[in-house]
Amino acid sequence: MTDLNSKPELDFPEGPAPEALEIIDIVVGEGPEAAPGAKVDVHYLGVEYDSGEEFDSSWGRGQSINFPLGSLIAGWQQGIPGMKVGGRRKLVVPPHLAYGPAGSGHHLGGKTLIFVIDLLGVS
């Protein structure tokens, strides 16, 4: 059973990084559904696909974050809508839907990223 009150743990990915966005529901929520452009309240964990190293986590800061989907990377804009409050979803986001190609100026440019997102609320 998945505990949505604790930081998720990820197994190291196997095989080559996917070229398309992967959306995997770990827990299907039963609350309101996130619509494109909604404001979402989430807890999340982000790791690099190739190294498995964590690069960001709201869990590490001890509080969820709240922001409009339209201000996020394309992988989140495409991967969160349809998710319901109370759910946990894993997104595997290729570089073109994350921070762009290597050399784009962002330290995560050119990297495939894995996020585990807990949807706590929508507005």
Describe the structure.
With 123 residues, the protein is mostly beta strands. The protein has a single domain (22-122), classed as Chitinase A, domain 3 (Roll), CATH 3.10.50.40. The protein is 8% helix and 33% strand. It has two helices and six strands, in the order βββαβαββ. The chain has helices at residues 58-61, 74-79, and strands at residues 22-27, 39-48, 54-57, 65-68, 88-93, 113-122. Strands 1, 2, 3, 4, 5 and 6 form a six-stranded antiparallel beta sheet that branches. Strand 2 (39-48) and strand 3 form a beta hairpin. The longest helix is centred in the middle third of the chain and has 6 residues, at 74-79. The N and C termini lie far apart (28 Å). The mean pLDDT is 93.
CATH C-level label: Alpha Beta
Question: What percentage of residues falls in helices of 4 or more residues?
Answer: under 10%
Average of the residue pLDDT scores: 93
| Proportion of residues in β-strands | 25-35%
Shape: globular
Number of domains: 1
CATH topology annotation: Chitinase A, domain 3
Distance linking N and C termini? 28 Å
What pattern of helices and strands is seen along the backbone?
EEEHEHEE
Unreliably modeled segments: none
How many helices in DSSP terms?
2
Structural class comes to mainly beta
Query: Cα-atom Rg, whole angstroms?
Result: 14 Å
Beta strand count: 6
Mind summarizing the main beta sheet?
Answer: 6 strands, antiparallel
Indicate the CATH architecture.
Roll
